[in-house]
Amino acid sequence: MPSSRRRATLATVAASAGVSVATVSKVLNGRSDVAPTTRSLVQSLLREHDYIAPSPRRDGPVATDTIEVQFDDDFSTYSTEIIQGVVAAGAEVGVGIVVSVRKKIDHPAAWARDLVAAGRRALICVTCDQLTTRQLAALSRVQLPLVVIDPLHLPHAGVTSVGSTNFAGGLAATQHLLSLGHRRIAYLGGQATATCNQARLHGYRAAMEAEGVPVPPAYTRSGHFRYQDGLECGAAVLDLPEPPTAIFAGCDESALGVMEAARARGLRIPQDLSIVGFDDTQMARMASPPLTTIRQPLREMGGVAVRTALRLAAGEKIDSHHVELATELIVRASTADVTCSKRT
């Protein structure tokens, strides 16, 4: 969404403020030898004109280049995996990584302008809600490339994104439980409208339908990809008159919540209840028992996002606006044959 507006220059701002270009430059550089009233006026006009400092000429990536990675929420083990992948990829090409939590954006133009003024070469957003048209337009106007990792909703057609094969992951998780003889299998997912959640749910349903196994309405629940939601939704399905013998949780964190709900009811894992997660974070490996899960290649997704963002920043064309990396079933000790269960 290119803008027809010409980029403002120091001379433009200086003329509007009735001061010299040198004075505007001093304000931009934080010099103290400018009167407070003049500084305030110049800063106001810089914002009004959406002034963006020109990027210095570079022959290639240098240590001062940075990419900003923004999250919508507080960090988790999922976030840590993404960050490690992004940082490792940045180190390989000599690009610094700045990590931040993005809250409400009231002024998209100022948000985009500040990113460029801070020297960002590109922006990576992780599991973000759909960016608004104004936000996308603001990024386009300052020519700041955007890559979205694991988008919660289908992004705008022109937005580049990196994800994983969520449907295949949901299918594999459920097929694993079916292969162990389970038929009463519940799915506890994240936000009902989230694209990744819908894909995992559809994979679950496809596996159940292929085996001719009915899915009671109470066996599928949505919440958020968090421990507390796993705890609450797990409690709800385990208290049903005919509870499941196996649960597929939409992420590792909620799977641990399900584990706690099971323990609170005196159930053993996997003897009384089999549990599968999704992500394969460090949390899955540290769980007791270690969690069977679907490995989502989070670190690799972070690396692909960095390399793609740099290609966009260099003006290169990319083959696809959406890339999906393969998921993989990782079997550990939280699942067992249904014949081991006393709840069948």
Could you characterize the architecture of this molecule?
With 344 residues, this protein is α/β, with parallel strands linked by helices. The chain is built from 12 helices and 12 strands. It has helices at 10-17, 21-28, 36-48, 77-93, 108-117, 133-141, 166-179, 195-210, 227-238, 252-264, 282-286, 298-313, and strands spanning 66-71, 96-101, 120-126, 146-149, 160-164, 185-189, 220-222, 246-249, 274-279, 292-295, 322-325, 328-330. Helix 1 crosses helix 2, helix 1 packs across helix 3 and helix 5 packs parallel to helix 6. Mean pLDDT is 89; it is low at 1-5 and 56-63.
Summarize the structure.
With 344 residues, the chain is an alpha/beta fold.
How many distinct beta strands?
A: 12
What is the CATH topology classification name of the largest domain?
Answer: Rossmann fold
Which runs of at least 5 residues are low in confidence (pLDDT < 50)?
1-5, 56-63
Mean pLDDT, nearest integer?
89
**What structural class should be given to the helix and strand makeup?**
alpha/beta
Range of strand content: 15-25%
Helix segment tally: 12
Sheet with most strands: strand arrangement: 2-1-3-4-5-11
By CATH, the architecture of the largest domain is named 3-Layer(aba) Sandwich
Set down the secondary structure blueprint.
Elements: H1 10-17, H2 21-28, H3 36-48, E1 66-71, H4 77-93, E2 96-101, H5 108-117, E3 120-126, H6 133-141, E4 146-149, E5 160-164, H7 166-179, E6 185-189, H8 195-210, E7 220-222, H9 227-238, E8 246-249, H10 252-264, E9 274-279, H11 282-286, E10 292-295, H12 298-313, E11 322-325, E12 328-330
Parallel strand pairs: 1-2, 1-3, 3-4, 4-5, 5-11, 6-7, 6-8, 8-9, 9-10
Antiparallel strand pairs: 10-12
Helix pairs in contact: 1-2, 1-3, 4-12, 5-6, 7-8, 9-10
